[in-house]
Amino acid sequence: MNNAIKNILFHIYMEKFAMNDDALIAYAEENNVENHRQLLEEFNAIRSTSYDHIWEIIKPDKHLAASEINSVVKSYSLENFSWFDDESFKALLNWIMYMCWHEGILKD
User: CA torsion sign, 17 to 26 to 41 to 81?
Assistant: First the structure.
């Protein structure tokens, strides 16, 4: 699968923080994308491992500024998801920022 299609699917999946499985599946089926179920698993793992990486950094009770989270996510993404385009990075970063705010990790 080429990176452009994979990025499109990731954007669809991450849309509105809802982990839009149905939209991803519909797009994949309409465009004859094989292995879209495996992509769902991969995309779930990307969210989980990326957030877990932040969690490891803040242990035991550290908070991070938005700029620090941005830097950590960018570095982690470049190292682990070479196929990401800017929009995939932004989609992941937005979700992680929300989760960090929700969990009290984000500094005021």
Answer: negative
Domains of the chain, by residue range, sit at: 3-102
pTM of the model: 0.87
DSSP codes joined into one string, 35-72: THHHHHHHHHHHHHHHHHHHHHHHTTT--B-HHHHHHH
pLDDT digits (tens, 9 = 90+) for 38-77: 988 999 999 999 999 999 988 877 899 999 999 999 999 9
Q: How far is CA 96 from CA 37, 49, 66, 82, in A?
A: 23, 11, 10, 18
